[in-house]
């Protein structure tokens, strides 16, 4: 007798995926959002994670967690030299990752792992996947234009057509508009050779991957997605962003988020508050903090400022200038760490002063919040340039932190006509993002293709 279809479904194997994130805030968020999203599509998921910055399993009841040693007991390595830390991570995790996966293939109550998804920076996973004959899909946590423009930049360099020391910082690079020499990422390493080795490792790991997932959407950067498909990555590309919208509540905050600021926001006038956060790893000189504080105070705008502990060079605690608190008590709020996605979605928030990490940039765009841009390293400079000069949803602070420039930039964004126009463009981009997520939209369809690919393995 034929089995009932219910029984057939029960017996059908649920594909088991292993996921390996890089333990940095922006990278962890994107990977765990993806993991929860894939779980909602019917996959069984094991997250293999480092002890350093390990996620909190109780926030993710649908996922299983397997810790591995990482050689990063001292988290300072990330802030001191992230490239060196990335090397340590790739070297230290390779064998533990192999051992953990071997176990999950031969002896898991959830069935053998059939595919792995890893952050592209974890290039050591190629060797592991090859040894275990497992297909591998990569997650890139930056934008498509960052990948496309940096690929062109590297080609120009290799062909002797451009050198990083060429020309003055404001010179436009005609081959990758609207980038200038000073927008080229500053990687922040004492060892450029190590950087080259890391780049080579990532390029090599890219070659045999089955697919490449990006946390972006077609309505934002279609030209660059086309370029990547045509000229850069030989494997299928899946643009499935914005992941945090597809998978709400799936972020993993390393620091405790202070929700008390939400009640404070409730009391403010719509679109009047500027929210300030420079991400999870940036740090500033004491003088910068003084300039930021007086810029905020003199702008006369309400503000919510994330001042992360340890974000001031050489100081464990934050000391604000005398008179600042008195001047801003009625209209300012400072927290160690905020529930950023909820803050940006709050009707009182009218602007985001950001370092332009890709997650922050995407979150601002998807909530229709215009940006004041202060990038400092990695892809942030490219993101800031696109926000201000391509989508025109932001104003870039060009000369570091100077109180009168800050005051004027905040007023331009929050009260001047220019700010209103920027806000309208930001709203259009938000709608664009929502359309890409609907059935038939590019991100929705791309996600379906990704699911089909993994199901076919
Ligand atoms: C890093 C790099 O800075 C970035 O350039 C790269 O694209 C990804 O890795 P990070 O500095 O952490 O990331 O910035 P970002 O990518 O913006 O991610 C920060 C995340 O932390 C966001 O998802 C944001 O919502 C969250 N956050 C930030 C909080 O939850 N609370 C805060 O107070 C600030």
Radius of gyration, CA atoms, in whole angstroms: 22 Å
- Give the count of structural domains: 2
Strand content: 5-15%
- Tell how many strands the DSSP assignment holds: 13
Strand order of the largest sheet: 3-2-1-4-5-6-7
How is the secondary structure organized here?
Blueprint: H1 5-11, E1 16-20, H2 25-40, E2 44-50, E3 64-68, H3 76-80, H4 82-106, E4 113-119, H5 125-132, E5 136-140, H6 144-158, H7 192-207, E6 211-214, H8 218-232, E7 237-239, H9 243-246, H10 260-266, E8 273-277, H11 286-299, E9 303-306, H12 324-328, E10 332-335, H13 340-345, E11 349-354, H14 358-366, E12 371-373, H15 380-389, E13 394-396, H16 403-414, H17 417-437, H18 442-455
Parallel strand pairs: 1-2, 1-4, 2-3, 4-5, 5-6, 6-7, 8-9, 8-11, 9-10, 11-12, 12-13
